[in-house]
Amino acid sequence: MRDRPPVTLGGMALAVRVIPCLDVDGGRVVKGVRFQDLRDAGDPVELAAAYDAAGADELTFLDVTASVDDRDTVFDVVARTAESVFIPLTVGGGVRTVDDVDRLLRAGADKVGVNTGAIARPELIGEVARRFGSQVLVLSLDVAADDSVPSGYTVTTHGGRTRTGLDAVTWAVQAEDLGAGELLLNSIDADGTKEGFDLPLIAAIREVVSIPVIASGGAGAVGDFPPAVAAGADAVLAASVFHFGQMSIGDVKAGLAEAGHVVR
């Protein structure tokens, strides 16, 4: 795999974003392995404020059981989290309609993540993009290895519990065409394992889309982040390694800078 050159805008290299992720269930941050065996990791509002102070570039808040439980995102928790930070906040979980997106934006989200709702009704992507702009819509791709589809990766829904049989690479292309502004690419097989990002998956998606790609799933050491960027990620996201103090935002940025990547 060849390292790609730095992404530029007007001749200037764009900084790699480092994004902590708050997986929220019942108003508490949780974290497991491959979306299973969730354990408590703290209060989302307190963690959000701490990550903002620590230099995080953005923050992602995912209500991990909203789709499974067929309920709306916990808007009051979103609002309190948004009030505690001054960095961009992406919120996802249980988003099915344009009105859901509107409510989240009014609660304080800057961007909204959609997964299950977009697969159930792909036209939702275009509806959101036309009303609020593509920059608001982050398509979440919870991807699992699957030899039955051409790319070897399929998209899952309902917090990774349901395999769709939809090829992840094909869906990424379709989502960009429909108006998605960014892709949050999470490897279920790597999630929580701390064995490193799924580099072939990142590269496969990077090859077919031009919108930003956020790599998620598998970070276990500072050295895991630069290869994800080299494979094609514009941003890197992690959860448990930050929540449980294994490394800091500053550690990751230092490692990226040492590897030659531009950071804020």
TrEMBL record:
Signal peptide: none
Gene Ontology MF: a single term: lyase activity
GO cellular component: cytoplasm
Annotated EC: 4.3.2.10
Pfam families: His_biosynth
Alphabetical UniProt keywords: Amino-acid biosynthesis, Cytoplasm, Histidine biosynthesis, Lyase
Pathway annotation from the record: Amino-acid biosynthesis; L-histidine biosynthesis; L-histidine from 5-phospho-alpha-D-ribose 1-diphosphate: step 5/9
Cross-referenced InterPro entries: Aldolase_TIM, His_biosynth, HisF, IGPS_HisA/HisF, RibuloseP-bd_barrel
One BP annotation, GO: L-histidine biosynthetic process
Catalytic activity reported: 5-[(5-phospho-1-deoxy-D-ribulos-1-ylimino)methylamino]-1-(5-phospho-beta-D-ribosyl)imidazole-4-carboxamide + L-glutamine = D-erythro-1-(imidazol-4-yl)glycerol 3-phosphate + 5-amino-1-(5-phospho-beta-D-ribosyl)imidazole-4-carboxamide + L-glutamate + H(+)
Entry annotation: catalytic residues: 23, 142
UniProt keyword Lyase present: yes
Subcellular location: Cytoplasm
Keyword Repeat appears in the UniProt entry: no
Enzyme class, spelled out: lyase
Function (record text): IGPS catalyzes the conversion of PRFAR and glutamine to IGP, AICAR and glutamate. The HisF subunit catalyzes the cyclization activity that produces IGP and AICAR from PRFAR using the ammonia provided by the HisH subunit.
Family indicated by similarity: Belongs to the HisA/HisF family.
Subunit structure of this chain's protein: Heterodimer of HisH and HisF.
Protein name: Imidazole glycerol phosphate synthase subunit HisF
